[in-house]
Amino acid sequence: MARSEHEEALLEQARKVLPAGGFGNLSFDIVIREGKAGRVWDESGNEYVDFLLGSGPMFLGHAHPDVTAAAQAQIGKGTTFFANNAAGIRLAAAIVDAVPCAEKVRFVSSGTEADAYAMRLARAFRKREKILKFEGGYHGMSDWSLMSLAPKRLGNFPQASRDSAGIPRSVAADMLIAPFNNAELAASLIREHREELAGVILEPFQRLIPPAPGFLQALRDVTRECGIPLIFDEVVTGFRFAWGGAQEFYGVTPDLCTLGKIIGGGFPLAAIAGRADIMAHFDRSLVGDENFLPMIGTLSGNPVAAAAGLASLEVLKRPGTYDRVFATGQALMDGLAEIIAETSLPAQVIGVPVLFDVVYTRETIRDYRSTMANDAAMQGRMNQRLRAGGVLKGDTKFYTSVAHTEADVAHTLDAFRKAALEEARKAAA
Ligand SMILES: Cc1ncc(COP(=O)(O)O)c(C=O)c1O
């Protein structure tokens, strides 16, 4: 892709004023100027089919007219009040209506916050301190979440290892780690530690790994048996896998869940939702001073974000919307798998039609440790070639949107075929 002097100058300025030259998210060698439906343009004017989708929020595609109109209407009336607002109340009602576990809802501004509050809520409810999470599971950037997300050195379960500099050692002692998709081991750890466990948190679909049949139900059963709140992190899966999220898609209802991305319509908004008796800890009048969990955020339930989120949910609720995006994603997954077979690329497609990727190994992927077989260097080369061919995606994900078209699918498969052939040539050389 050709790069304009204008974009070069911006990148140069970024390197001067931003650590490592970026915001911390996608690689820092591109500046995105605008997006429309399933496409984005960089500051040099290059066009890409966009499967990054802002890391997931733009499930309807960029600048959807209904979402834009709802946000603009609110902006004209003021952008934040630090008080209840109509759009936020209606958005909470829509979440209660859609999400099986949601009896009450509290808003925050990011998935990180939502997950940190959900864990604190479980501690307050259970009057215990430890949380069990799964190796490789992502729950944002709090101290408690950055435990055994991507350990380089594999330890023994349930020992937690810190993923970031700056996290106190004492936090690791309050976390227990289990391998995803191993119901037996998780259940035995939960039973063994039941007297000190406050909650169990997981992504019901961990990164790109679907739950094995029976895994979520086994966790549901053992946490219910032990009276320990089960938390589904649905920041990614909420309103994406189904109207009721992964809990509807997989038919297992947790006690609490966190939501983000889609419910903010592209603005900063996330939520904790769940059982009324647990959410009661946010209400001093119900639980008293000692059990009360204060929760204040300047922008929590921001009216512009809530209006955009509500408008997004209204579009998603229209009949046929999920069928359409699942069909688009399935066509992509099938097309990629065909090209992999044709070109004998040592790779496979994993995930579901709304969220998947190609992983560069033929090993079965069922937990974090099996993902280590992925050839990250090959994945990086393929992603770079896709980008050069006008396809933008995250390092490890394709997010599909309602706005992607058959032409977008055809363009993507064409770019992937060229990239795979180049990889095959490189391997033969
Ligand atoms: C499963 C999951 N939980 C939590 C988060 C954190 O959300 P945020 O980036 O809004 O803090 C993410 C973000 O990608 C996520 O994928």
**Percent of residues in β-strands:** 5-15%
Structural class: alpha/beta
Q: What percent of residues adopt helix (DSSP H or I)? A: 40-55%
Q: Main sheet: which strands, in order across?
A: 4-10-9-8-7-5-6
Low-pLDDT stretches are: none
Q: List the total number of helices.
A: 15
Principal-axis shape: globular
Largest sheet: 7 strands, mixed
- Total strands: 14
**What letter string, H or E per element, gives the SSE order?**
HEEEHHEHEHEHEHEHEEHHHHEEHHEEH
Q: Cα distance, first to last residue?
A: 25 Å
- Distinct ligand kinds: pyridoxal-5'-phosphate
Could you tell me the mean pLDDT? 97
As a whole number of angstroms, the C-alpha radius of gyration is 22 Å
